Amino acid sequence: MASSNFIDYVKICSRSGHGGGGSAHFHRDKMTSKGGPDGGDGGRGGHIILRGNAQLWTLLHLQYRKHVIAENGHNGGPNHSFGAQGKDDVLEVPLGTIARDAETGEFKCEITEDGQEIILTPGGRGGLGNAHFKSATNQTPRYAQPGEPGIEEWVVLELKLLADVGLVGFPNAGKSTLLSVVSAAKPKIANYAFTTLAPNLGVVAYRDYKSFVIADIPGIIEGASEGKGLGLRFLRHIERNSMLLFMISCESADIAEEYKVLLNELQTFNPELLDKKRILAVTKSDMLDEELETEMRATLPADLPAVFISSISGKNIPKLKDMIWEALNS
């Protein structure tokens, strides 16, 4: 997924169609000069509908479509003819898309399944024709009901990636390298901070044709929850992950302290993130000998499952997969 093509936030003007007006018509033919009311109902205005599409990973196709306008309903006709309904406008969105009111921030709906359809902005109802208003005391109603106006609103569509495991760590901790080793994903890898500027997804093959999805989140720095670095922009993707894999390089001066900083940033952003299962992976451990690894293990948080790995040499990668699978299914 190219970083320039990854769009996870768009703001659109959603306008549903107006309902068609009812008809105030009276029946006339060569045999009937003064027939009764036969005005038909107006058609419903078109809806704006969100539909889940598992083949999409980004909101890029909606980035430059600022106005989404559905068709108006048609007016009713004579001889009890109903007006045609306005054509719905269906927006295909990736799974994990949330819609909010742009002005109030109020949650509107969420798409989580392929093919799931939710009406984002309902169209106006069609008006009733004059045939509905006839009675014994009002045999010639010369009026009909107008169509209901459509709704125009600004809506924010926000994508939160659906993945089983979220990679959390400081920049240059080896997250993208691990993703490229355990999956077929090809994220950008380089020896400098903030190489990853957009989330990447990878499907990890496990035993007996099983698999799980890993999301590589851009590096977090101290103060990210306050807007530093890439700030809050990508932290929201972690909210959807079933578990978190903390990755800290063995080159760190204090692994336990870095872990506390990462944990604090997540807690500041959303305290519920601390309820997720966690595993600590100490990366680049191919540079360590057994004695040094034993010394470092004694400094790690006691209540956290930890493993020393190396994406380059493949050290403990199968063990890490086992730990993740066990945590996901426990």
Automatic annotation (TrEMBL):
Cited InterPro entries: G_OBG (IPR031167), GTP-bd (IPR006073), GTP-bd_Obg/CgtA (IPR014100), GTP1-OBG_CS (IPR006074), GTP1_OBG_dom (IPR006169), GTP1_OBG_dom_sf (IPR036726), OBG_GTPase (IPR045086), P-loop_NTPase (IPR027417)
Residues engaged in binding Mg(2+): 176, 196
SUPFAM superfamilies in UniProt: Obg GTP-binding protein N-terminal domain (SSF82051), P-loop containing nucleoside triphosphate hydrolases (SSF52540)
UniProt-listed GO biological process terms: ribosome biogenesis
Residues holding GTP: 169-176, 194-198, 216-219, 283-286, 310-312
Pfam families with a match to the protein in the record: GTP1_OBG, MMR_HSR1
Gly residues bias (residue ranges): 36-46
Function: An essential GTPase which binds GTP, GDP and possibly (p)ppGpp with moderate affinity, with high nucleotide exchange rates and a fairly low GTP hydrolysis rate. Plays a role in control of the cell cycle, stress response, ribosome biogenesis and in those bacteria that undergo differentiation, in morphogenesis control.
PANTHER family: DEVELOPMENTALLY REGULATED GTP-BINDING PROTEIN-RELATED, MITOCHONDRIAL RIBOSOME-ASSOCIATED GTPASE 2
Protein name in UniProt: GTPase Obg
Natural source organism: Pontibacter diazotrophicus
Gene: obg
